[in-house]
Amino acid sequence: MTEIDLEDLIENLMQCRRCGTCRNAVYENKGFDGVCPVWRNSAGFETSFMRGRIQVALALLDGTLEKTPENAEALFTCTLCGSCTEICAAEFDPMECLEKVRAVLSDIPNDVRDALAEKIMQYDNPYEEDEGIKRNWIKEVGFDVPSVGKVLYYTGCTAGIRLPNIAKSTAKILKTAGIDFAVLQNEPCCGSVMIRTGRVEDAKKNAEKLAEVIKSAGVERIIVTCAGCLKTIRNDYPKLGIELPEVLHVTELVQEVIKDKKLKLKSLEGVKITYHDPCHLSRAAGVYDAPREVIKAIPEVEFVEMETNREAAMCCGAGGGVRSYNPELSKKMAADRVRSAIEVGAEIIATACPFCENNLLAGVKIEGSKTRVFDVVDLVAESLEK
Amino acid sequence: MDKKILRELTNIVGEEYVSTRKDVLLTYSASASTSYERVFPGAVIRPKTTEEVSQILKVASKHKLPITPRGGGSSLQGEVIPQPDGLVIDLMRLDEIRLYEDLQSVTVGAGITFAVLDKYLNKHDIWIPYYPGSSMAATIAGNVAVNGAGFGSPIYGCVAEHVLGVEVVLPDGNVIQTGSEANPNSPGPFLRYAFGPDLTGLFIGSLGSFGIITKVSLKTQKRMKFFDYNTYGFETVEQAQQFLIEMRQNDINSLWVALYEGRILDFFLDMVGEEYGVPQHEWPNYTVSAAFGRVREDQLQSDVNAAKDVCEQLGGHVIGIKELPRGEWEDRLREFVRSSYVHGWHWRILYHHQPLIQWHKSMNELWAIMDQYGILGHTAGFQSQRSYNFYPQLYYDPQDKEEEEKVIEAHRDLSKRLFKTGAVPFKLAEYWKDAIEGMDDYMAFLKQIKSMIDPNNILNPGLLEGAEK
After folding, report:
1. Chosen CATH of B344-427 out of 3.10.180.10, 3.30.70.380, 3.40.190.10, 3.40.50.300
2. What are the backbone angles phi and psi of residue B136, rounded to the nearest 5°?
3. Which of A84, A226, B121, B465 is an S-S bond match for A22, by CB 3.0 to 4.6 Å?
4. In the predicted model, what is the mean pLDDT of chain A?
5. What distance in Å separates residue B90's CA from the closest CA in chain A?
């Protein structure tokens, strides 16, 4: 990943024949009802979806466009959700190429990108919080959690700092299932947003730091609750030359323990739940069934799919650095996704990524909706409590 | 672009929907047409309503501002390449759909794509049995402006045959409605040829040079549910051509009919054969791939039997490999898009119609051009009622400028040769201008119409050479 072959990248970008399928294709056979969430929720110029982004990228690379922040905006308003990759007929991966373009063109000034990277390097999280804060939630779970052990719950920045309920729910589930686990004393960020926004060299240094910490904690298996952490550690780290122990998303683990009858779930009283696929868990990691099976395992839950789901699911707008780069656009996309849930009558939107949850909550607020947003682990934990 | 004009445009649609940014203009300087030089417009505007389009054209007319209307941007022959410093009107925000179930028709805004409409109609168990191979990106209005053809065309012909009327904004900003809807008391679209001369036809295939289509009204039909597929082999081209003709004469409902020369079929299967699950086969000299569709099962069975009889009477044989036509039909929303991605090449394309009986003439010219210029190419196509709609593609490596130039020259030459065989384009197209000979009075008449409707020559200028004042 660090060594990007520019010639190869350009050749790949030129695979785009500008057909425009990546804009708003409807393809019932594959479940698509639109493709690009940015195009749907912005002024909709050609620069707002992948066909235009690729043209801009090529023009920046060959000098047709001057390397200015304004000219590079199209590169950074993409959530890298991968929906276009899923439907594209060409023999290249547009999402992956755009991510590489961001890295190659990292000399173009971008204050948001740079500030995020610097915060992570300085604070080990993008929220400028002190080291160790990611263990604060442990005080509320009622039992001790060691900082070293064979099974590591890698909390992640958003669950550890902004949405600690997810961490607490996860802890309760693991405890109930009889799985001993540890949480790092000082947990470095996985660096997902650095990779997505093109600060790959910094991301590599950060990843090496995390790898060292994990290694010294004697970890054999990593559990994550964040889809971004999963994609980064499972998919990106090997490309950076960093090997970590097996990493599992918590829904994959919970599916296993439910199957092994290690959890007894009680009714949530007929609530209607839909599931939003986090792009980094679904299209990037291929985890579609586990979260759905976990939700369906809760007695008396009415599970309903949104119009777009699984491989064709519309993104909530949180990823790819867009939540920081253009929060207003990001929240509009979330509101759009919330409307999809409302359309199918869902009372709860369950998801499996704190970053998605955070943005969907913003979407609910915009819509003024009574729809509630929870992580799948929160639902399971609630079901355990009853 | 002049700041005063921009202010006027911004006042119409709001600041958010007008752009003069260099990056935005770059993305409107090209379309899916590869091998066409980029031309940067001066601004892009994205209106939401017909009224806004009307006001934009009034401003453009006042300032003699060249206009390029644009839909899905999926056209392949430079149709939406703008004028230098001109205005591109992106019509994708005109996204209304209105169904007239009792009239068996539907009206769509200029931003509606075929795939969007198909999904909508599917909920009502109806459809428009017509799918250009770029249905997921192409708008209906844009396709009407180029008079496209596609899946469904063997029976129903070009998109023109589905159209009941259009709403058009003329260059002076006036809005007219053609067909039965011209009557303000009309319950909706039900007859195209109302009030005498077919004004609808004036705008079909016009590339927006007489007016901008803002709405299209189309016929809907009960959705077919019964399909069958087969392949038919022939030793001579005459047999194969005659098979296509006789399928029509025998009222066989073939929604998709493609005639492949052996070596062309091998090339095509190299692209999609595995995905479609087509088994290995020693294909005959000529293969016809056909998909049949009917509302009732008994009708379908009758068609299947009749196709077999016609084939055998002509000396052909039923090959029995269904995967090829099934794959083509089921992939109809994007079949052409898929086949565009062959082997990493880019290409220049030359759509045209050839009478069925002259299918071989287009093939002969294509092979001759490839030999003469030493380039690679391919052609596919399909039956479109009485004609065969060819789309020969001449390939080049996008990073080899010399090869690209050679392909542009070969393309020009091919259009001349095809015109001489009697082939015709199905729209006003810049690349045919050099080829057309012996149509002086026809072209003069067309230019007269253009001068009358668009005296300032703002709509797609240059398309009808000499019409400019």
Report:
1. 3.30.70.380
2. -80, -15
3. A84
4. 95
5. 8
